[in-house]
Amino acid sequence: MTNQRIRLLIVEDSEDDARLLYSELTRTNSDITYTRVDCAEDMRKALLDSEWDIVISDHSMPRFSSLEALDLLKECGKDIPFIIYSGDVSEHVEVAAMCSGAQDSIVKGNFARLLPAMEREIHGAAVRRAKEQADAHVHKLAFYDRLTGLPNRNLFCDHVGRKLPQAEGRSATIYVLDIDRFLRVNNCFGHKVGDALMRQIAQRLQECVPEDGMVARCGSDEFAVFLGNVASDQQARDAAEHIRQAFSRPFVEGTLEFFISLSIGIGVSPRDGDDVPELLINAETAMFRAKSMGGNNTQFYAHEMGAVAGAQLVLESALRKAVARRELLLEYQPNLNAVSGALTGVEALVRWRHPEMGVLQPDDFIPLANESGLITEIGAWVLESACRQAKAWHDAGHPGLTIAVNVSAVQFWQPGLVQAVARVLADTGIDPQCLELEITESVLMRNADTTIMTLQALKGMRVKISVDDFGTGYSSLSYLRRFPIDILKIDKSFSRDVMRDVESAAIVQAIGALARGLGLVTVAEGVETTEQLEFFRRQHCDRVQGFLFSAPRSVADITEMLGARAAAQALPQQKGIARPHRMSGRVGKILTQEFARGAA
Ligand code: C2E
Ligand code: CA
Ligand code: CA
Q1: What is the CA(438)–ligand 2 centre distance, in A?
Q2: CB of 349 sitting under 6 A from ligand 1
Q3: What is the residue-level pLDDT of the chain in tens, covering all 600 positions?
Q4: For a substitution probing ligand 1, which of 366, 377, 443, 490 has the most ligand atoms within 8 Å of its CB?
Q5: Structural domains of the chain ordered from first start
Q6: Which of 197, 320, 351, 525 has its CA 20 to 30 A from that of 328?
């Protein structure tokens, strides 16, 4: 017998016979250990305490028999090869033993038969075990999520599908949970941290769900939960709140602390679907509604949502093709020197000329672009087009005109932003100092170190950084010191409020003082009235932007405006007074009036 390690359990009342057997076996294999038992209790203990490769059993013993030993083996749930090795066994017993799972029956002393039989059966058992393990592995791959070990969508559908009919009288409820903004965790901290966090999230979810429920991972950052025993919608909502409560504690991964919020959609059986796949889809639709409401909330499925979700999908697939079909276009809104009224630059604002719906404004499709990841492609197109246009204006005799480009938070966290900007600078040949990238306060609030690195890389290329919609986020003013930024754009909500609300006016004052202290340029957005303009001038705001001067305009309109500016500068200036000059068109008229005001 080959020299493989064999752990042998001998069921035998005679120690001499056991020894003889052992010494015969060790002639060809020195690596054999054995234990002898001769009664049910000892055998049970041996089976439960240790692992065995084979059982060699006498048939008839004073306190035990091979048939009882076989029964015990089965009772203990062990799949161990079993060979009867006895002086005389009737054919009747042999048949019974084979029926109970014995592999062979060999007459005592016939080693010539015993040894190959043992080898054959041990090998057979090893093959069986390997196959079982492989089957279990395949099963795991097919039905469990590898990262978290949770059941996957298949197993969830299968398991819950069998439970649905039993939930009579009560409502079986399916929750789809999506982690808000998880993509950013991966983008900022890498997949290793993302994966570890995901495992923690899975663990905490499981702790929230009772034994008879089920948690599954259905997508990259999407989970499904089943609760079988929910009496009312209120209870269903309470259960969701219970989960959200559990997530109010932060997750700690290494030295990092994460606050995770969930968007939850609820589907109730049988109201929202007859089978699990339908319930899941509807709960998912409700989850998307929760997400579109800003995340961190719970929504029940309602039939109208199906239509809205369908419309979103149609819009998304049209947006996917919009860049290639040249359906996107840019308008440009001027910003002016607050004192002189001179046009200092323009902000590029994207529009989508939809083939059926007409021109859509950014609020109609930028959130969708962010959500679907399409913002990367759209943002790249905006950056490139705006820089190319600005360069054309520079070359046409308007050097120094600044071009502001909006960069959404999703876009900012996407890898490759710095490279994309560098490429556009090189391709278009624009003076980098004329490019102002507008980021939002929320970008500054997330993971400061990564943000600072990205901003520094951009600053290294001499591009200007502008904080858009400033004052709407939560950043304390002193927080700004940490970031290499150049411009603060005061959110348009302040323009609206400064004239009637003392607090807003005080905030703008504080922002102005801080900006001056940090050497930042301030821009007031959404200036619609002369009173607002006067207010911002008193606060020493550097630039203004708003409908008072001009709404966002086409390239042709801006070109006309620039032409008028050049003509104005060509005329002799009266000392200390910015002068109105001949300008044509509506835009020109407004700007002309503003020059006059600036001079007043
Ligand atoms: P934003 O960056 O704050 O852009 C200014 C928005 O305020 C523009 O809206 C503009 O039309 C509007 N606006 C300008 N002056 C006034 C005013 O006096 N009063 C009022 N009430 N509104 C004024 P728009 O073009 O609809 O853009 C909305 C937002 O969409 C932008 O806000 C920006 O966050 C986003 N967006 C626009 N283009 C892009 C883009 O290319 N990429 C990204 N990521 N976002 C963009
Ligand atoms: Ca902006
Ligand atoms: Ca803004």
Answers
A1: 6
A2: yes
A3: 566 789 999 999 999 999 999 999 998 888 899 999 999 999 999 999 999 999 999 999 999 999 999 999 999 999 899 999 998 889 999 999 999 999 999 999 999 999 999 999 999 999 998 888 888 888 888 889 989 999 999 899 999 999 887 656 667 899 999 998 887 788 778 889 999 999 999 999 999 999 889 999 988 889 999 998 888 899 999 999 999 999 989 999 988 888 899 999 999 988 898 889 999 999 999 998 888 777 889 999 988 887 777 777 788 889 989 988 999 999 999 999 999 999 999 999 999 999 989 999 999 999 889 877 889 999 999 999 999 999 999 999 999 999 999 999 888 988 889 999 999 999 999 999 999 999 988 788 777 788 999 999 999 999 999 999 888 765 566 678 889 999 999 999 899 888 888 888 988 998 898 899 899 999 999 999 999 999 999 999 999 999 999 999 999 999 999 998 877 776 544 333 333 333 334 444 445 444 444 433
A4: 366
A5: 6-143 (3.40.50.2300), 153-301 (3.30.70.270), 322-599 (3.20.20.450)
A6: 525
Strands 214-219 and 222-230: antiparallel
* The length of the chain, given as a count of residues: 600
Full-model pTM:
0.58
> Residue 304: what residue type?
E
Nearby residues of 518 by Cβ (< 8 Å), 6 or more positions away: 480, 481
Q: How far is the CA of 488 from the centre of ligand 3 (A)?
A: 10
Ligand nearest to the backbone CA of 349? 1
